[in-house]
Structures are given as C-alpha cells and as structure tokens.
Specification:
Blueprint (H helix, E strand, L loop, with lengths): L3 H16 L52 E3 L12 E5 L11 H6 L25 E2 L11 E8 L2 E10 L10 E4 L14 E7 L8 H4 L4 H4 L5 E9 H6 L5 H5 L3 E5 L8 H5 L18 E5 L12 E5 L2 E3 L8 E5 L10 E6 L2 E7 L2 E2 L5 E4 L4 H13 L4
Antiparallel strand pairs: 1-2, 2-8, 3-11, 4-5, 4-7, 5-6, 6-9, 7-8, 8-9, 10-11, 10-14, 12-13, 13-17, 14-15, 16-17
Length: 389
Amino acid sequence: MRSVRAAVVAAVAAVALALGACTVGGEDRAGAPSATPSATSGQRPPDDTPQPSPRPDRASPDGAGPGRVGAGRDGDGRGGDGAGGGSRGGAFARPPADELWQPDRMARARQPPHATAGGARGGTDRVPEPVPARQVPRPYHRNMAPVGKVFFDRPEGPTVCSGTVVRDPAHPGASNLVWTAGHCVHGGARGTWMRNIVFVPAYNDRGHPAERLADAPPAQVSPYGVWWADWSQTSDGWLRYGGTGDERGSAYDFAVLHVRPERGGASLEETVGAAIPIWFGAPPAGRISGVSAYGYPAAPPYDGARMFRCAGPPGRLAAAGGAPALYRVGCTMTGGASGGGWFVSRDGVTMLVSNSAIGSTAHTWLAGPHLGRAAREVFDAVSQRFAER
C-alpha cells in the first residue's frame, strides 16, 4: 500500500493538473515560495499501519483549548489594503469535555448564514455562468487531504465551514495553521467570537451520506483526528464591516486558526502529510487563467457530508470604499463551503489565493477576497505568535 507521503504528493500533483495554468505577467510581487507542498512522514488514516514519529513536547498556548474567553489585539488597525488593515485574535479556554465534537454532533451542524453580494459596481466583470460543483474523488486523504471542515458553536447552535491546512514559515514542515473565512471565527460588526472551534481534515474520508454519519466509525469521519483551535484571528476589516451588508466586510473575510496537537504529538501538517502555501499578493482576476474552489457545501441540495470543487476562470467583483476587488467564479456550492480554499497552479505548485466568502442567492457563483497586505498581516501575526512554541 502506498505511504501517506506518496498518496498526498500524488493527490496534490493531481490537483495541480486539474487547476490549470496561472498567467502571472509582470513582476512577481508576492515573493511566494516555489517549492512543492511538503509531504513529510505523518500519521496515516487509522486503516493504515505506520504511526507518526514523536515530536518534542511544546508548551500549550495561552489558555490552550476551545471556548473563547476573550480577544486580544494584534496590529494597530492602520495600513493594509484600505480599511481592512490590522487584525484581532484571541485564545480559548478548555471546554468541559474533549468529546464535544463526536460524529453525531458533527452531522447536526448547519451552515452559517448565507452572505450575498449587493449590486454590481463599476469595474465588476460580467456575472459568470453557473459551474456545477463536482464531487472530489474518495477517499479524500488520497485526493485533497489538506482540505477539511471547520466546526464551531454559534448562539444558534453547532455550525460548519470549510478550511485548509496551510504552510507556516515559522515551522517548516510542521504547520499547525488552518486558513478559513472571517465569518467562521467571528460574527462581524454585530456579532461575537465563535466558540469550540475544531478542524477535521479530510472529513468523512469515504463520503458516507449525511444520514449515516452519526453511526459511522470515527476513523472514517475524522481520519486524521479532531484538531482543537487554541487561537483564531481575523481582520479589522471584517470586524468593522462584516455581517452588515457592507461589501468591505467581504473583501476582508478571511481568518487563520492555530490548532493544538496532542501533547508531544506530531503537528497538523506532519499528520496530514501536506500543507498548501499561500500566495499573498497574487495577480488580479484578469491575469489568472483558472482557479479551483474546494469545500463542503451544506445547504440544499447538498448535505455537508461530501467535498466538492468548482473550477474556472475568475472574474472581478468590485467592492466599496476602496477595498480590494474580490475574485468571483461560477459555482453551485452553497453555505458550508465558506472558508474553503481557492487554489491555482503556479509553475506546477498548488497554492492558495483566496477562500469562499460570499455567493449569489441563486447559488450560481462564489466570490472570495484577494489576499493582499491585510491578509498577510493576519497570517504573520498568528505565525509569529506561535513561532517559539
């Protein structure tokens, strides 16, 4: 049987082929890494045999564990891309029981409120044709292991988003960072921080129907385990404008989670076998020939149990107030896909350039923020916070 390393390398290579080329043009301003995503030795899904190599024990982060107890502040709120500079984050307190997120509770989680865009602005490209979402081949750990589901609690109950394991320059080959949407960690200007956030890579690895998940073996629901977040961080732009209908909120609708490995255990990246590099400052929509958006759509006609993807050329969706324009692609995915990564192939390397943030009321397209300076500030703040841990 192939090792997890071989399986993930093959999977990421297959995804790169499916994404299509990225036409850059001009100077590369992002300084993005050119190496292929790492595929270090790591834990296989439970039906495989090798076990992860032990890693040195790391100190637990502030208030390690889920359940938010307060928010700190990183950055001064100035600079960045227009109004979205700066970021805020906070630690979590341990919940009463680590068994909170069992398969039956995961199956009951629902998508967050579906955000839609307002009227078209000058500079917005024509509305894309709908692109039917296609199921990602199973098992997911052999096809797109770094993609998974984010579970959290809102006042209304358990809720779901999507997320991606991303590289951390402070911990090469041993990242514990997950990229997702801002509205998956905070309710925006009129909301509060989400609680009990966990990430499940390759969720529902075998693609069981939703009605069977409550009784499915945990090893098939969470093949790489359930990873509790001990820190989440999003942009000031999302905290100021998110959830109000102001398009500036959507332009800054991104977030980073730091998850906690078991004491003395392998990192998230080592366990999953890969992490996706982020291309900050990627070219605008007109200079990227193809993107693929991944996620777990949960609103009808989807049930949140399976991973889907849409692929196509991105267009431009202009935002208000000088905020950066969003990428937009035709896609029929619904709520629950929020936070899922958008990937391009750059010189044969799969890289994350955005995440699903908003969509149309008819579920014909999705839009995601351009990851510029404000996004880099959020990411760097989390990476540096845990650099020595």
